Amino acid sequence: MKGKRKGWSSCFFLVLVMMLCFMSFQCEANILAKTSREIFETVIQKGGKEATKGLARLGGRQAIEEMLEKAAKDGGEELVEIIARLSKNYGVTAIKVIKHSPALYARSLSD
């Protein structure tokens, strides 16, 4: 009987860890999607028609999301915040430069 309990508790622990990892991933995905939407809306609002065309050439909101995902992987939440600030301030030009190497460009531009 004792062996069965140990098996169940190990299984329960594994399921619990998997659920927590999934929830963490979902939370991060939601934050990145929200940040992406904010950047997109701010850039278009500030830049108007030219910014809209520039973002469309880059790949639109999907390009921003990919840039943020890469930044999260390279430097975590801190880097994502730096990139969001730079993108909102400098618009399409910043996105065009930063998307290739978020960690390298964001840190050098923010200094």
Report what the structure shows.
- This protein is mainly α and 111 residues long.
- The protein has one domain (32-110).
- The protein has four helices and no strands.
- It has helices at residues 2-58, 60-90, 92-98, 102-110.
- Helix 1 (2-58) packs across helix 2 (60-90) and helix 2 packs parallel to helix 4 (102-110).
- The mean pLDDT is 79.
- Per the principal axes of the C-alpha atoms, what is the gross shape? elongated
Sequence stretches where pLDDT stays below 50 over 5 or more residues = none
- Estimated structural class: mainly alpha
> How would you sum up the major sheet?
none
The averaged pLDDT comes out at 79
Sequence of secondary-structure elements = HHHH
Number of domains: 1
Number of DSSP E strands:
0
- Rg calculated over all Cα atoms: 19 Å
Helix percentage range: over 70%
Number of helices: 4
Amino-to-carboxy terminus distance: 63 Å
- Strand percent estimate: under 5%
Offer a concise description of the structure.
The chain is 94% helix and 0% strand.
Helix/strand layout:
Layout: H1 2-58, H2 60-90, H3 92-98, H4 102-110
Features:
0% strand, 111 residues, 4 helices, mainly alpha
